[in-house]
Write a structure and sequence with these properties.
Blueprint lengths: L2 E3 L2 E3 L1 H7 L8 H24 L9 H15 L7 H10 L16 H31 L2 E2 L3 H4 L1
Antiparallel strand pairs: 1-2, 1-3
Amino acid sequence: MPMYVNAVEIDDDQVFQEMQYHPAATREEARDNAARALLIRELLRQEAMEKGFLDAAADTKTVEIATMQLLEEEVPVPAATSQACRHYYDHNIERFASARGSKLPLPFDTVKDQITDYLQTQSMRQGIQAYVLDLAVRHRVAGFDLAASL
């Protein structure tokens, strides 16, 4: 069954071809993962065109670069503060054991950079997910329930 992002069709052959990049426990899960990836890629491509980051004749590499530029501009990622890092450390202290089987945690200063990176990554993922959901509402997506799959 074909899917659409506005007037652009994504057919079953494209989904089946994309499935090789989305290994999963079942064929249905791999298909859903591939379909989601193709829909998101097309949503971002169309938004990048709308915002002037690329033109319709762009090659794959240019689309990837434009997509990254779009996300960098449109998805705010707040910096992880020392206070947020400390809060995460205090509430997840068991994750910071000094050695396998040890109950003693590593000092906060030793793991602060790792926590900062982790919180930044989580913030970025949540921001991108919210942005993609917003795009899905603003554009016409048919043939797949993108919101339910995220």
